[in-house]
Design a protein that fits this description.
alpha/beta, Rossmann fold, 2 domains, 3-stranded antiparallel sheet, 10 helices, binds zinc ion
Length: 298
């Protein structure tokens, strides 16, 4: 059984790039007669707001993107995350890191996803403090995946990332750990998300292997770029076509090089057409789609 999901963080309403991911993951689940879950990544309680959760739900429903089952909230799973955190600790694959952010910044070489942690605390046998982070030990093993759109992707995590954090110094479990625990609990089989997360996928596979959790199939879609930058919550708001769900659907299908439905269809007919004709392999861009030309002419 195909089980997919869409997992927004409620730090703002969905922008067009996130909506594109929602639509694509929905279509991929439907084409495979699968389930499509909605999971709210609300662990970072400093940035999360209830009003954004409500807004995201409204946005999805307006687009007729209805999810299967109850909405999943990461904030209700702290005990599950701690269970798996302790499991990794009991396997002696972690250590306590007391480095300050400043210390890491000045001592690390730039890497593909922030600075490469130089292993400062690896052999220090630090004792627990109030605000320590927990890092997982990496090794020489190359971690690879066969992405449904990006193809073969591999990483030497120790070399390119360094020992990475699984619990932050503010006591919040890291995205990398939380997401693999979620996918295990939700029996997720397929993940379709933005290519900005491709670099973090090997870390997730690495943790899945340590914990002997099932592997998942991945498709990383190009992100939307505007003026050379990734579309974010602070730019591209004008691209939301508020109250025009049909236009949003048609725009997304165009960005993703899908067959465009005939004119004058209802929203439901557009969606039916999109499901019938959906094909990931049609997507021409890999890492990003530059939408400047499109918006300046429309
Ligand atoms: Zn450290």
């Amino acid at each position: 059984m195909y089980i997919g999901r869409f997992a927004p963080s409620p730090t703002g309403p969905l922008h067009l790039g996130s909506i594109m991911i929602a639509i694509a993951s929905f279509l991929e689940a439907k084409v495979n007669n699968g389930l499509w879950h909605l999971k709210i990544d609300d662990l970072d309680h400093f940035r999360v707001k209830q009003e954004y959760i409500n807004q995201i739900k409204e946005q999805l429903l307006e687009l007729n993107l209805s999810w299967d089952g109850e909405i999943i909230f990461q904030s209700k799973r702290i005990a599950n995350y701690n269970f798996f955190l302790h499991k990794i600790e009991s396997l002696r694959r972690t250590y306590i890191c007391t480095c300050s952010r400043k210390k890491i910044l000045t001592n690390s070489e730039p890497g593909i996803d922030g600075g490469i942690y130089p292993g400062t605390c690896r052999h220090k046998n630090n004792t627990r403090k109030k605000n320590h982070a927990i890092r997982v030990l990496t090794n020489k093993e190359i971690v690879a995946l066969n992405d449904g759109l990006q193809g073969h992707y591999e990483q030497d995590i120790e070399e390119q990332i360094g020992d990475f954090i699984i619990k932050r110094s503010d006591n919040i479990v890291s995205y990398q750990l939380a997401v693999i625990v979620d996918d295990y609990l939700d029996k997720t089989t397929h993940i379709l998300r933005g290519a900005d997360l491709l670099e973090s996928t090997p870390r997730q596979i690495y943790l899945q292997k340590i914990l002997s959790l099932p592997q998942i199939n991945y498709i990383h879609l190009p992100t939307l770029n505007i003026a050379g930058r990734k579309l974010s919550k602070s730019n591209g708001d004008d691209l939301m076509y508020k109250n025009d769900p049909k236009k949003i659907w048609l725009t997304v299908l165009k960005f993703l090089d899908q067959k465009i439905p005939p004119k004058n269809l209802t929203l439901n007919e557009i969606i039916e057409f999109a499901i019938k004709n959906w094909c990931v392999k049609n997507i021409k861009s890999k890492r990003f789609i530059d939408i400047d030309d499109y918006i300046h002419t429309s």
